[in-house]
Amino acid sequence: MGKRVIYSEKVAKPVATYSQGMLAGNLLFIAGMTAFNPRGEFVGKNDVREQTRQVLENIRGVVEVAGGTMKDIVQTTVYVTDLANFPAVEEVYKTYFPTDPPPRATLRVDLVRPEYLVEISATAVIG
């Protein structure tokens, strides 16, 4: 089984040593996405809903380049800096997974930069 790095032009280029996604066979592993738009601008300072939307759009961009859709996502991990923000994250999240949402773990963590309120990683089955 080979592997292939996945990059989407709809997602900001990584600023550290990681790939946006890695396709191994038909499994797509998507890096933890933060709220940067394709131009590399941070979106949603102090607005967890706006950050969550951008994060999920980034995930969608990687999945689509690999040949899939959001329906192909089979697992996510959501990282939030404050559990009080979880209801707002959930409000946006459920619009991307309105039926048969993937299994999910949610953790309260410190993220790499203080302006990050949410980060999400995902796994998808493509094809």
What is the compact description of this entry?
The chain has helices at 48-65, 86-96, and strands spanning 3-6, 21-24, 27-33, 73-80, 104-108, 118-125.
Strand order of the largest sheet: 1-2-3-6-4-5
Please state the average pLDDT score. 96
Fraction of residues in helix: 10-25%
CATH class: Alpha Beta
Level-2 CATH architecture: 2-Layer Sandwich
Helix/strand structural class: alpha+beta
Q: What series of H and E elements makes up the topology?
A: EEEHEHEE
Which superfamily, in CATH terms, is the homologous superfamily? RutC-like
Radius of gyration: 14 Å
Q: How many β strands by DSSP?
A: 6
How would a textbook summarize the main sheet?
6 strands, mixed
End-to-end Cα distance: 15 Å
Unreliable stretches, pLDDT < 50, 5 or more residues? none
What would you call the shape? globular
Number of helices: 2
CATH fold-level assignment: 60s Ribosomal Protein L30, Chain: A
Our estimate of the beta-strand percent is 25-35%
How many structural domains can be distinguished in the coordinates?
1
